[in-house]
Amino acid sequence: MRERSVLAVTPVSDIKSAGVVGGSLGGLFQAVALAELGVDVTVWERSAGRPDDRGAGIVLQPSVAWFLSTFCGVDPDRISVPVTHRQFFSRDGRSHHTLMEQRMISWGAIYASLRDRLDSARYHDGQPVTAVTPRPGGVDVHVGDAVHRVDLAIIADGSASRHRGLVAPDGAPRYAGYVAYRGVIDETELPEGLSAVFRDRFSFYDGDRTQFLCYFIPGDFGATAPGSRRANWVWYVRADAAGLDRITTDRDGTAHGLSLPPGLIAPQVHAELLDRARTLLPEPLRLLVEHTRDPFAQAILDGRVSRMRKDRRLLTGDAAFVVRPHTAASAEKAAADAITLFTALQQLPSLEAALEAWERNRLAEGNALYRHGVGLGQRLGLNSPSSAAAAAGEATP
Ligand SMILES: Cc1cc2nc3c(=O)[nH]c(=O)nc-3n(C[C@H](O)[C@H](O)[C@H](O)COP(=O)(O)OP(=O)(O)OC[C@H]3O[C@@H](n4cnc5c(N)ncnc54)[C@H](O)[C@@H]3O)c2cc1C
Asked: What InterPro entries has UniProt attached to this entry (predicted)?
């Protein structure tokens, strides 16, 4: 049994119950924080079973680290891998380093810490929410034939949010013109000597309108001992709409739209990826791609909303802002959404004041990250002309 958080809490009296739509990181951060406030929280998650984390890596940022240690009783250093340097490759495979200490964590390690913290009776998987409707003094959450009455609803159903429009008239994400191919390799499966090239380093290669990154992340169950970690790489490659469709259509011809899960890449697309790696990448990075059994891919999207609350329904995580992965801030933003709401509910004198302050703060940060991400994509030459023009044409709301 872990110790409870030492934070003193004074629950806002109007919020005794909350319903969370979506049980990924964004929903879980909110659920755990609200439970800390003494709120009776229920999470409904559409997918059944434990999600496949795809082993994907996440840069450990301050709000996530604070959340894990303060609300989950987990020492983030125990489930993350340190890097001491940034390493920059040139095309001929040579590299130079600069000192930069950071920690890398995996999606799965964060997810497991949050799920462990939340009473399992509060989490209902395989239960899609079909409607989130306001009523005086609260919200009705519709799940199957049941209607659950809650005082506050958190909509955390991700970038493809079905319920975003209930709160914001805008915010549907737009394709930015490039994809992230990704891969993870168990450290023990790396070819001789390659582990030492990437160990303790956050590696970068900026090519012509392309960028490649690599860092180590924890292995299964947050394992961080040498030999049990994984190399995690991300390769940003431009693709027009037809190219995106090709990449995300799997080996059986099924179209997946904006992402391709591991294990499904079509042989022709995989062959092209390997060819491209041989032509474009410095040797150590090429070897990573060649030794990856199941590369997967995600479309890079831009999305932002002009509001994050309507009556007692709040948008959080990627349902509100989808920011570029170059910012390394999506999980961080979702954690900060929850911490800010926790603090506002705890400290401000009324529910209206708390929600107003929360929304103001989160819109400002979401917009800043959105613009920062588009700017980084532009600097790397990755933005499609239409995505750059559309992003530039959008004045700050
Ligand atoms: C493979 C991968 C790699 C990533 N890498 C990074 C990274 O390196 N750095 C980083 O900062 N971020 C990364 N992210 C993004 C980061 O995980 C998210 O930004 C963060 O988790 C917040 O997401 P979210 O919970 O808002 O949305 P999501 O993770 O998209 O979750 C939305 C959830 O809502 C559920 N849902 C949808 N509709 C309904 C419904 N009607 N009823 C109930 N449930 C519903 C979905 O099943 C899903 O579980 C990555 C994400 C993925 C998938």
From this structure: DHP_3-monooxygenase (IPR053212), DhpH_subs-bd (IPR054707), FAD/NAD-bd_sf (IPR036188)
